Amino acid sequence: MASDRQKLADILRRIDGRGYPAYREIQGAWTFPNFTLWVDHVQGDPFASPSRVRITLPASVAAFPQATYANTSRAVGLTAFLARAFAAAARRHSRRRGTGKSGEIHMEAPGQEVLPQTAVQIDPEGNVEARFTVGLPAQGRRVLGHEAARLLLENVPAVVNESLLAAAHDPDLVWKHVATNEDADALRDALADRGLVAFVADGAILPRRSGVDDRPLQDDTVVPFQSPPSLRVQIELPHAGQVSGMGIPAGVTLIVGGGYHGKSTLLRAIERGVYNHRPGDGRERVVSQAGLVKIRAEDGRSVAGVDISPFIDNLPLGQSTRAFQTANASGSTSQAASIMEALEVGATGLLIDEDTAATNFMIRDSRMQALVPKEREPITPFIDRVRQLYSEHGVSSILVIGGSGDYLDVADTVITMDAFRPADVTERARAVAKQFPTGRQPEAVGPLHLQHERIPIPRSIDPSRGRRDVHIKTQGLHTILFGTETIDLTAVEQLVARGQTRAIAAALWYARARYLDGRCSLAQAIQRTLEDIAREGLDILDSRRVGDLAAFRPFELAAALNRLRSLQVRTNTR
Length: 574
Prior knowledge:
This protein is α+β, with helices and mostly antiparallel strands. It folds into 4 domains: 4-169, no CATH class; 195-288, no CATH class; 292-449, no CATH class; 453-573, no CATH class. The protein has 14 helices and 29 strands. Strands 1, 2, 3, 4, 6 and 7 form a 6-stranded antiparallel sheet that branches. Strands 18-21-22-15-23-24 form a 6-stranded mixed sheet, sandwiched between helices. Strands 13-14-10-17 form a 4-stranded antiparallel sheet. Strand 23 (413-418) and strand 24 form a beta hairpin. Helix 3 (72-93) crosses helix 5 (171-189), helix 12 packs across helix 13 (522-536) and helix 12 packs across helix 14 (554-562). The longest helix is centred in the first third of the chain and has 22 residues, at 72-93. The protein starts with a helix and ends with a strand. This is ATPase. Residues 472-570 form the MRB1590-like C-terminal domain. Pfam families: ABC_ATPase (PF09818), ABC_N (PF20446), MRB1590_C (PF21117). InterPro entries: ABC_ATPase_C, ABC_ATPase_put, ABC_N, MRB1590-like_C, P-loop_NTPase.
């Protein structure tokens, strides 16, 4: 009896020269000697999205030691390593074999961050599954069967052998990826007990190669990070043992210093520290609490029923800000809305860089207070709420401040960056604040209330377009096409992988279909969606077994929903 492999080869030779739809004959499962090839979806023509395929390998063939996937942290580290190896091997074995995407083998390669993803997975027994796409070869719209046979029967097995088998890798390198990921999780878990919101390890390499290349900068100018002695903490990790570095305490922390001395570089490392990083990234032991959210001004964004009254109130003409609605937010209103939206879904800390913030939202100095009385200024600046955020709600703030010394009055910790070297200048900052009083008057009145919950109106979250009931696509990292609307995520700076954007797009529809029924609040719907993913995995978002989804946080999902311009809500007082 002919093997599945031989049957597949016979079909590909038989359909050679026929119309492209003939490829549908190969859809299904094909058993090879060491693995099973699953052709889940055949593309409609050589110019369409490539065909979706999977490889499944039994544990006896993959042969990874059980210790490398013994818990979730290790399994995520291992599968990210395998996905990166598969993607590299796929590039080596892809060949142009006709028109369109003919001959392409592609897997979504992880970036510097290590995220749970669907490209490569390993189950508790050690069985491995890899999901990727292939461009089935054609000339015009005619099948190139012999080329397809070489692609599926030679090149794909070569990629599997070079990437998905333990024997293909240096065991020490595999273990390094596994251990590094487990150490990062352990390090993050240790923060709260020590009263910290972030940790930056001694020796970390923080600068990146460029704004579009997130790999570590490698030249003679790079200064490895060294903690100020007063902020240095030591933490015992499962594999690396005792590591030392700068612990950033909960509360209000300022990062100050001259221009180009590394303030924003440090904040960006903390911003990305909500995710783990691959070995060699330089930030493997730079970790932050998972609830830290980067906030910036975002002129022109839409805002749907957000209570921004703690920051902006008493607008001219009596417009209420307790359920603020606009299709074209200013810098200050957008920043206020983004803060309240982050708090709505559980943010534990805010990250703000003065360079990307609205000046009038951040500070109103004594001279401006004298010129424009408070009763004529609707904005309560962030400086007058930042301490309340922490004292009343436990929300910390880490701020890059280069030009507003008024913030010295409200800071718990002040770190200066001087030629990329940090120093603890908290006591000096307090002395300066006492020596040079600003004369400004605090403008916050009363406690900082978080009083409303928002309940999305289901009909305002409409994914339909034309005759299609559901039309949802993504374009790159920062754009989601949702029905007739375009969601712009450019200002959502902690979105780091296109797989996250795809998963968020799918999660918007998942939440709409299951939870956003006109009774469930926005925060509840997002929480329940994330709970479902935690319990069932990312595949709950897409039944097609796609390999291009990556894990995301509630804050980025909320950011996407909040930037859907058609969104309408009603508010309830808690």
